[in-house]
Amino acid sequence: MDAWKRLGGFIGSHMAFVSPVCVALGVLFPQVDVILHPFVTPFFAFMTFQSALSNTFGNLARTARHPAPMLVSLVLATVAMPVVACALATALFGSDPNLVCGIVLEYCVPVAVVAAMWTNMLGGDPALSLATILVSTVAAPVTIPLTLHVLLGQTVEVDAARMMGEMAVSIALPALVGTAANDLSRGWAARELSPVIAPAAKIALVLVILSNSTGVAPYVRHLTPTLVAVAVFIAAFASCGYALGLLAARALRCPDDQTASMTFLVGMRNISAGAVIAGEYFPGEVMFPVVIGTLFQQVLASLFGSLLRRLRRAGRAGA
Fold first, then answer.
1. What is the DSSP string of 135-196?
2. Helices 173-184/126-152 angle, 10° precision
3. Residue 160: is its pLDDT beyond 70?
4. Does residue 223 register a pLDDT over 70?
5. What is the rounded CA–CA span in Å between residue 54 and residue 47?
6. pTM of the model as a whole
7. What does the buried/exposed string (b/e) look like for 68-102 if buried means 16 or more CB atoms within 10 Å of the residue's CB?
8. Residue 76 CA neighbour count, 13 Å, CB half
9. I need a surface site. Which of 63, 206, 213, 307 has the fewest CB within 10 A?
């Protein structure tokens, strides 16, 4: 059992190395997605469950009573990021409306479910993370078409029923079950069960990164100078999202756990949802800015995770 827990600790502390390796393997061997893809939703559900084991319904009530961090995260992720992305993309790539549309779509999809896993690894606030992800996903059938229409004049009808079904399976039910397990066991689930299954959750995260990375393989192999510029823009703008969440938390004088949560909540996007919408409603070129984010999102998460650890150590040393 100790070796199993050490494996989980090793993966968590070396995500800055593990993430880019998984991305590279996904690009080089896209055929692995045939095996992994059917398990992605169960992996998400398992990661959400494990993250929720450290949560309580009392914490959720506290988040509802003091909603400022959640509301700020939602406004930054749902309003500010798409508006700024649209303005910058129009200025840089305005001659290609499809690329502009893809960039805007990348930043108007809901907060990534995997953000809960990252906040859990960084000692974040599970109630804040789960509540924000839930609200973001529930609102997505309205916010995505509205954002695209207001910013681009695009009309999109999102399959609300399917999105809500996926949200229930991967977020709502596992979060409720995990939280209830912790409350009913009077904290035993957080103290005993969560550490035992945490390594499996980290392995699930690695496999999700690997699976998602396979989607960019066709585009990476046919890069043009314009697409390279788009990729650089996505990488830079994605890093700004994490930084914006971190700075907003500092401005609100949030404690360390909420700071970790806000960093990932503002920075991470449900790229899979964006890819589905791009594939169903838009020309193929729109897909590139959306899926190319897969190359950077997890790597940036690991880098900002390392930054959060250093900031936390520096804060304790100065206390």
1. HHHHHHHHHHHHHHHHHH-------HHHHHHHHIIIIIHHHHHHHHHHHHTTTHIIIIIHHH
2. 160
3. no
4. yes
5. 12
6. 0.84
7. ebbebbbebbbebbbbbbbebbbeebeeebbbbbb
8. 26
9. 307
